[in-house]
Structure formats: C-alpha cells, structure tokens
C-alpha cells in the first residue's frame, strides 16, 4: 500500500480537474500511476494540513478546499499515533548524527508511512537521506 506525500496529492488533485492535454507532465504521470493502483492509497493528517495551508494561500480557497475534500473521499488519512512519534524521534537522532537532517513535517510523513508498512510516494529528494528500511517511490520521474 502507498502513502501519498503532499506533492503527489497536489498533482492528482490539480490534474484531475484539467483536460489531459492541459495537464503538466507530473500531473499526468501521478494520475496514471494512481488510477492503475491495485492496492489502496492513503495519506496522513500532516499532508492534509499542508494541503489546507495550500488552499488558504490559493487564488480560490473555497474551490481548493472542495477539491481536497473530494480527494479525501478516495484517499483516507491514517492516524498519527505514539508509534509514529517514537519512530520520528529515533530517526531524527540518526539523521542528525549523520548531519543529514530532514524538516520535521517531511520526516514525520515518512515515519507515518513506515509505521504502517506503506511505501511513501513523494517527489522530494530529501527522502534519499532516510535509512534504507524506509521505502520511497516517485511516480513522476
């Protein structure tokens, strides 16, 4: 199963409201991969918060919120529980000791994916610094 990071959620949401010929290449690739999934995809509360922030700063917040809510009918957020936070703390120490820190929200998203055994789907290069036990895919490259 997959946990979608904010950028992939945005590609899917934004692209799904466009005619295919007007979509950006990243939107086409993310939508195609999403539509061809044989397993469920999820997101997390941190990503939802980031998408809501994006809505607040968009040209049309009301429309953007509606699109996010429609998207969340098909991609449910998983719970950030104590195990996610413990993994976050331990992984942050490892990354800091290697001098390869990752921003807290990004690290938390990765830890949520790992805690549930999901593959994180992201276009963020920073995730290359994660320990090898984390699984990350990028649908848009």
Please tell me how large the radius of gyration is: 15 Å
- How many helices? 6
Overall spatial form: globular
Q: Give the topology string: H per helix, E per strand.
A: EHHEHHEHHEE
Helix content: 40-55%
Q: Average pLDDT value? A: 96
Q: In total, how many beta strands? A: 5
What is the structural class?
alpha/beta
Major sheet = 5 strands, parallel
Provide the β-strand percentage band.
Answer: 5-15%
N→C terminal distance: 20 Å
- Lateral arrangement of strands in the main beta sheet: 3-2-1-4-5
Features:
6 helices
Report on this model:
The protein has 141 residues and is of the alpha/beta class. It is 52% helix and 11% strand. The protein has six helices and five strands; from the N terminus they run E-H-H-E-H-H-E-H-H-E-E. A five-stranded parallel sheet has the order 3-2-1-4-5. Helix 1 crosses helix 2, helix 3 packs antiparallel against helix 4 and helix 5 crosses helix 6. The chain is globular. The model has no long low-confidence stretch (mean pLDDT 96).
Structure summary:
The protein has 6 helices and 5 strands; from the N terminus they run βααβααβααββ. By secondary structure, it is an alpha/beta fold.
Draw up the topology in text.
Blueprint lengths: L1 E3 L1 H11 L8 H11 L5 E4 H12 L4 H11 L4 E3 L3 H16 L6 H12 L3 E3 L14 E2 L4
Parallel strand pairs: 1-2, 1-4, 2-3, 4-5
